[in-house]
Amino acid sequence: MSPKATLWREYREEYSDGTFVELIIWLVPFSEEKPHGLKYRLHFGTDSGTCILRYDNEKGKGDHRHIGTKEEPYLFISPEKLLQDFLNDVAKYRKELS
């Protein structure tokens, strides 16, 4: 991570079914690639390494989300909306897994 990046939020919650949620959000300088000033990875997966859902904005790809092996663009509105969308999706997929 760039020396100008500052860790803003980090959170991990593990569930008894072997899934977990991990959120990592960095404050970064505003740029064309990061117009909202955030670098993030919001992950929902299994202890065995399966990615069920991930929202991120890796370099060169911009804001997007992974649903299983499918990748699609994500329209970033605000940090609050990002977290709300991610957590709503996690709740939906946890319900489907039970």
Number of strands: 6
Spatial strand order of the main sheet:
1-2-3-4-5-6
How much helicity do the residues have?
Answer: 10-25%
> Please, how many helices?
1
Overall, the morphology is: globular
Q: Spans of 5+ residues with little confidence (pLDDT < 50)?
A: none
Order of helices and strands: EEEEEEH
Radius of gyration: 14 Å
Description:
The radius of gyration is 14 Å and the shape is globular. The chain contains 1 helix and 6 strands. The model has no long low-confidence stretch (mean pLDDT 93). Strands 1-2-3-4-5-6 form a 6-stranded antiparallel sheet, covered by helices on one side. The protein has one domain. It starts with 5 loop residues before the first strand and ends with a helix. It has 98 residues and is of the alpha+beta class. The protein has one helix at 79-97; strands at 6-14, 19-27, 38-46, 51-56, 64-67, 70-73.
Summarize the entry for a quick read.
14% of the residues are buried. It contains one helix and six strands.
Which helices and strands, and how do they pair?
Layout: E1 6-14, E2 19-27, E3 38-46, E4 51-56, E5 64-67, E6 70-73, H1 79-97
Antiparallel strand pairs: 1-2, 2-3, 3-4, 4-5, 5-6
Any key phrases for this structure?
single chain, globular, 98 residues, alpha+beta, 1 helix, six-stranded antiparallel β-sheet
